C-alpha cells in the first residue's frame, strides 16, 4: 500500500478504511504502536458523526473514489482501501 500522507503535517489518527465491518478493528498490537493505523469499526466508534469536509474537498474526494473504482472494476479488482489521515488542529495547538 502506498502512503500519500504528507510528512510535514503530523497525523493524529490514521485509518485504513475498506467499507466493511467484518474483522475491521485494530488489534491490540496495532493499538500499542506509536502511530497506530485504525480500521473501519475504530473510525465509527471515534467519529460516529463522520468528519466534516469542505464541499470542494468532499466533491473532489468522491470523484477520485469513483474514478478509482472504475479503474479497479475494469481490471476485476475488488479490494479497495482508503487511507485517511486526520490532523487535529486543536490537538496540534495544545502540543505546541
Automatic annotation (TrEMBL):
Q: Which GO BP terms sit in this record?
A: phosphatidylinositol metabolic process
UniProt-listed InterPro entries:
PInositol-4-P-4/5-kinase_C_sf (IPR027483), PInositol-4-P-4/5-kinase_core (IPR002498), PInositol-4/5-P-5/4-kinase (IPR023610)
Q: Which residues form the PIPK domain?
A: 1-96
Domain of life of the source: Eukaryota
Listed SUPFAM superfamilies: SAICAR synthase-like (SSF56104)
PANTHER family, alphabetically?
Answer: LP03320P-RELATED, PHOSPHATIDYLINOSITOL-4-PHOSPHATE 5-KINASE
Under which name does UniProt file this protein? Phosphatidylinositol-4-phosphate 5-kinase type I, putative
Q: Which organism is it from?
A: Ixodes scapularis
Alphabetically ordered keywords of this record: ATP-binding, Kinase, Nucleotide-binding, Transferase
GO terms for MF: ATP binding; phosphatidylinositol kinase activity
Amino acid at each position: 500500500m502506498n502512503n500519500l500522507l504528507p510528512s510535514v503535517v503530523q497525523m493524529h489518527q490514521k485509518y485504513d478504511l475498506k467499507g466493511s465491518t467484518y474483522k475491521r478493528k485494530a488489534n491490540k498490537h496495532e493499538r500499542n504502536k506509536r502511530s497506530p493505523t485504525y480500521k473501519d469499526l475504530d473510525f465509527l466508534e471515534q467519529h460516529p458523526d463522520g468528519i466534516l469536509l469542505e464541499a470542494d474537498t468532499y466533491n473532489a474526494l468522491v470523484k477520485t473514489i469513483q474514478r478509482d473504482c472504475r479503474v479497479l472494476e475494469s481490471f476485476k479488482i475488488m479490494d479497495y482501501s482508503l487511507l485517511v489521515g486526520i490532523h487535529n488542529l486543536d490537538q496540534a495547538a495544545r502540543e505546541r
